[in-house]
Automatic annotation (TrEMBL):
Listed GO MF terms: asparagine-tRNA ligase activity; ATP binding; catalytic activity, acting on a protein; nucleic acid binding; transferase activity
Domain of life: Bacteria
One Gene Ontology biological process: asparaginyl-tRNA aminoacylation
Keyword terms of this UniProt record: Aminoacyl-tRNA synthetase, ATP-binding, Cytoplasm, Ligase, Nucleotide-binding, Protein biosynthesis
Protein name: Asparagine--tRNA ligase
Annotated family: Belongs to the class-II aminoacyl-tRNA synthetase family.
Catalysed reactions, as listed in the record: tRNA(Asn) + L-asparagine + ATP = L-asparaginyl-tRNA(Asn) + AMP + diphosphate + H(+)
InterPro entries (UniProt xref): Aa-tRNA-synt_II, aa-tRNA-synth_II, aa-tRNA-synth_II/BPL/LPL, Asn-tRNA-ligase, Asp/Asn-tRNA-synth_IIb, NA-bd_OB-fold, NA-bd_OB_tRNA
Domain Aminoacyl-transfer RNA synthetases class-II family profile residue range list: 131-431
Amino acid sequence: MIKSTIAELPKNVDKEVKIGAWIANKRSSGKIAFLQLRDGTGFVQGVVVKSEVGEELFQTAKSLTQESSVYVTGLVQKDERSPFGYELLVKGVQLIHSSVDYPITPKEHGTEFLMDNRHLWLRSKRQHAVMKVRNEIIRATYEFFNENGFTKVDPPILTGSAPEGTTELFATKYFDEDAYLSQSGQLYMEAAAMALGKVFSFGPTFRAEKSKTRRHLIEFWMIEPEMAFVEFEDNLVVQEEYVSFIVQSVLKNCALELKTLGRDTSKLEKIKAPFPRISYDDAVKFLQEKGFDDITWGDDFGAPHETAIAESYDKPVFITHYPTTLKPFYMQPDPNREDVVLCADLIAPEGYGEIIGGSERIHDMDLLEKRVEEHQLDTETYKWYLELRKYGSVPHSGFGLGLERTVAWISGVEHVRETIPFPRLLNRLYP
């Protein structure tokens, strides 16, 4: 007897295996019972034929309730009708634990109900598929940066300062001084880049934004690379190559999950570098021509503006050279225009909005000191950050990719709350 997982069944065709599983669903007739089995690695149908297993085992199979846990033995068979391509001809069923009154039944449930039961909703086929896509993006992220000479560095989550101001930060007491939950590891990653050249971080970040849009979470995960001796244009190349890599990895390794989610993969197949670019100046003109009378030069773009721009392209699009007044203090001004900075936001297609923000960083000590003063930041708090420009300063660049928005776009789900196991929203800290 071979002990197997559902994912390993294709390697055991025409062999008898034993799997541990839960009953996701079932249906039966007088002579055959169909058990929808899941074990975390995948889903497969178990077929119980009364004439082959006998009355007692058949009745056991028929009586199994949703989410009961079982050991199942059976013969692995190919099945072209199955999305998975295989099924299990059941020979034996051993009940481990009987589930009673499982709350998420095979019917429509409201969003709030499902969110209250997120610890159980994760078990569904759709949520399983989203989590598998998320996992593949994470796996591909490590592969991309490891293969391209980056070193993984972990910045602190508790910080004494804020890279983009303190208005949207969660404050806490750090013994006898103030501290904040990190909204970005970027400043620390710049220090790491001065030591290790090319680095990336991957960790949780927190924004105390009172936003309820489908693109926002209070707690989310960021991938933040920083690169010494890399200027603006080369930074964009790394971004488009990275995004292309993770999309193609998902297409290759999550075909079944994308099918489960009903994702139009033809749109993802087009996601290959290079990506189109449009300057902020041209984006404003484009929007005005499209009838957005509310937008003038110097205004930030909202979701409708980003979506209108993205609809003109079938790939992610860079919006570059935003006004200096719209961006954080650390961004390098365009040498030809002091009113704009060398930055870019990468806007995903299909209305998913900004997935990357990045820029070349200021490397001139005098200019950075001036910016700190202009933004009314405490010089002493940022002393260490300023010292990076004092001891061997070099041109350097970086960016941050929001994992959950990227998962939402690639998997095709509407709301980011489905892209993280336990979402933290404005009105939700449970479960």
